[in-house]
Amino acid sequence: MKKSFFALIIANTLCFSATAADTYTVDPRHTFPSFEINHLGFSIQRGRFNHTSGKIILDPEADTGHVNIVIDTASISTGLPELEENLRSKEFFDAARFPHLTFLSDKLSFKKGQLIAVDGNLTLHGVTKPVHLAVDHFHCGINLIAMKNTCGANATTTIKRTDFGVSKYAPALADEVKIIIQIEAVKD
Length: 188
Hints:
The protein is mainly β. The chain has 2 helices and 11 strands; from the N terminus they run αββββββαβββββ. It has one domain: Lipid/polyisoprenoid-binding, YceI-like (Lipocalin, Beta Barrel), CATH 2.40.128.110. Strands 1-4-5-7-8-9-10-11 form an 8-stranded antiparallel β-barrel.
């Protein structure tokens, strides 16, 4: 009981909000962008990318920030090796030619110090388009396991894959793709 109470006091003492411009490095062990797509009207298929890197600068007091995320397209994971090879091929991500998906933003929206949206440019399959990410969860504090200042968020958007030149099997395989990004980043 004493240990739990002591840990709670420490956690409350060490909690912080991201104030002033702070730089964070994406934690690849806790960041897995994923997607959902309607598969021929039968089901919603899901996949994720296992290797993500990047930097984030947050300044909630000034309502500013910067996001630079790089996703390794060959790291796609669906649970089906044959499907993963197909998605890496020229017909979809063309991972040999376009080894990375990138997201760059310098337009972050805050409400009372909480990140609520990020607008930026997504580059996929060699095509760059603006996207809006809605942030439905944002939290900064001390990660009590790693004992490091950490910020985490959950963001979503929907894109049309044909806008990025990925049109194989469209429209039978849905054009709209929901993207979900759960991310954690550690303060530098």
